[in-house]
Design a protein that fits this description.
With about 70 residues, this protein is an alpha/beta fold. It contains three helices and three strands. The protein has a three-stranded parallel sheet with strand order 2-1-3, with helices on both faces.
């Protein structure tokens, strides 16, 4: 599951908590990185901070191919 967030402290807290609950987590600091992760990892869920720099959330959802 990509966690897309630019606040390092929040990313750390989310990653620690999700991993403690046995989720596989990848952190991305921007939408462009999230798109690269989604293309490789094919996530079931993306945890996305709204208003991301570089790629808007609607662009991320429209651009990513989440089909199996």
């Amino acid at each position: 599951m990509p966690v897309v967030e630019d606040d390092p402290q929040l990313v750390r807290a989310l990653v620690i908590n999700l991993q403690a609950r046995q989720y596989g987590v990848d952190a991305a600091i921007d939408g462009a990185t999230a798109l690269r992760l989604a293309a490789v990892r094919r996530p079931d869920v993306v945890l996305l901070d709204r208003g991301r720099p570089l790629v808007r959330e609607t662009t991320l959802v429209e651009t990513a191919d989440f089909s199996a």
